[in-house]
Write a structure and sequence with these properties.
binds NADP nicotinamide-adenine-dinucleotide phosphate; eight-stranded parallel β-sheet; two-stranded antiparallel sheet; TIM Barrel
């Protein structure tokens, strides 16, 4: 096990720094970024069917000079494939696009379902359908013995969903991938996941394109003190909490920058608590009453387990 690996609850390991691929759709640019990233040392690549770019990632992966066993490839089942009879086919489609025999980690992208014919990120409330989370999860559990996926996990799951889910699982999720950056620290959820043996991956670790964490005065000050950059500070802070990070970049300089970690002092890590704003940016159904349990667990209990 590498010092920068995170141990999963099934004994497998996940590299703590991965490459995000959402909104990296410019043909040629993404393929080059994947090849550059792998050349620089990235081994963990975060993909999703709905990002629409897996075929390009698949082509690039054919050209990298690293064996398949040394890579950790993640993808996600989209909400339109939650019906249990659609899950195995959804994995086959992903493997086909990525030109792979198996995935290292397959995630349920969100804890709610939409109708199979809806294939967009911009959903409306009439697209929703009631498929219990455990029905989808049991179908994902069945995939592990097929050898087409090494670990299974979830994404965007809050604590109250996990609390209901875990006692019913044959396989406890290996990972919960959620939005984590200095303005959305998710302290309680991270504590709960760790206690339950679920590793956490933080997405939008730099705040994504809408939350400008890297302009924060406190983060800039810490960066200056360590002769590093705000991005390195934000990523190193998450890594120091035992959270995997998947920053997205297609720029060689930033790809390199995001791999360099800074050793923060325990005082500095403690001071991060002051800048938490509980500010989530990824909330595709913010206004749906029906999904309050996904985004605002304090307001409504999860009905769909
Ligand atoms: N499970 C989910 O529901 C979910 C949701 C959202 C995201 N994700 C995953 O998480 C990944 C990361 O999230 P994200 O892409 O939204 O946001 P992010 O990684 O926090 O930020 C990406 C943005 O920061 C820029 N950037 C990267 N490195 C930088 C640096 N060192 N200095 C300054 N700017 C830098 C990138 O631009 P350049 O490319 O130009 O460098 C891009 O605009 C996604 O790509 C996706 O794989 C998962």
């Amino acid at each position: 096990m590498n010092a920068d690996d995170i141990l999963l609850n099934n004994g497998k390991t996940m590299p703590a720094i991965g490459l995000g691929t959402w909104r990296a759709n410019e043909s040629g640019v993404l393929a080059q970024a994947i090849k550059t990233a792998v050349g620089l040392g990235y081994r963990h690549i975060d993909c999703a069917k709905i990002y629409g770019n897996q075929p390009e990632i698949g082509k690039a992966l054919q050209q990298v000079d690293v064996s398949r066993e040394d890579l950790f490839i993640v993808s996600k089942i989209y909400e339109n494939k939650h019906r249990p009879e659609l899950v195995a086919g959804a994995l086959d489609e992903i493997l086909d696009e990525l030109q792979l025999e198996y995935l290292d980690l397959l995630l349920m992208h969100w804890p709610f379902a939409i109708k199979p014919e809806v294939d967009t990120i911009k959903i409306v409330s009439t697209d929703l359908e009631d498929v219990p989370i455990m029905d989808t999860w049991r179908a994902m559990e069945d995939l592990v013995s097929s050898g087409k996926v090494r670990s299974i996990g979830v994404s965007n799951f809050n604590q109250s969903i996990l609390e209901k889910m875990i006692p019913q699982c044959r396989i406890v999720p290996a990972v919960n991938q959620v939005e984590i950056h200095p303005y959305n620290q998710a302290k309680e959820l991270v504590k709960f996941c760790k206690k339950s043996g679920i590793a956490v991956t933080g997405y939008c670790p730099l705040g994504g394109t809408r939350i400008n964490v890297m302009n924060d005065d406190f983060i800039k000050h810490i960066a200056e003190a360590h002769i590093g950059t705000p991005a390195q500070v934000a990523l190193s802070w998450a890594l120091a909490r035992g959270i995997a990070v998947i920053p997205k970049s297609t720029n060689e300089v930033r790809l390199k920058e995001n791999l360099r970690q800074i050793t923060l002092t325990s005082d500095e890590i403690r001071m991060f608590g002051k800048i938490d704003k509980h500010e989530r940016k990824i909330d595709p159904a913010r206004d749906f009453k029906e999904l309050e349990w996904v985004f605002h667990e304090d307001k409504m209990e999860c009905p769909l387990i």
